[in-house]
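Worked Example 4.2. Consider the chain below.
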Amino acid sequence: MDLAELTWPLVGALTKDTPVVIPIAALEQHGRHMPVFTDSMLLGEVLRRVKEAPVKERVLFTPLMWLGNSHHHLDFPGTMTASPRVYMDLLIDMAENMIFHGFKRIVFINGHGGNITPVQQALFELRQKLRTRSDLLLLSTTYWTLGGKPHEVDATLKQQQVGHACEYETSMMLRIAPHLVRDHQKVDEIPFGNAFAPAHRAWITKDRTAAGHIGDPRIATAEKGETIFRVFSADVVKFLERVLAWDGKSWEG
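Applying the procedure from the previous section yields the following structure tokens:
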């Protein structure tokens, strides 16, 4: 169900165990060959496919929030971003709006790496604020972290992880909007590097890449993009089925 298409009485009549999915993405640079709206477009396509599954009738989807936490990309023109604290407060408000309306299962589906830490922190803070509520399920996930491995389905995929405007994202864009991908075969590969792993190194994008992408867009194809979409969309469907099956009290899910 799409929230944007419902009247308030229809929303009010829904069972309060209906999961509310809040999609979050970004508007930020994606290298010299990809549009700034890439993350939002890709997440939108993942959700379009999710809504082809039966779970659509049992889940309430809010409109996609395109503004994300993208400060690390600000050195590249066209990037728009909310500062981390502002962004976390926005996410808290969106979740609290639906909790105020009585809903108990709030799920953020994310499509931008820079949103991962802020959305986790936002839900951590909200859970402390609502600590007397034992009936809430506050979740966040990023669609490419749910376990699917497209490179095991399509052996021609070189990368084994999502980068930025990389083989994965470029392939996905070639699948849904090839006219927006510009000369991806003419850019150089930018290696991921180890960044002092397993430690976490703070970074901004220009620390890692002058062009703006990370990975190898040159080997992207629309066929690879179809595989990637199919795997990741199926992951989200399975995840939402777990949310629907939650008994309302258990730690396990």
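The mean pLDDT is 97. Residues 222-245 form the longest helix (24 residues). Compare this with Example 4.1 before moving on.
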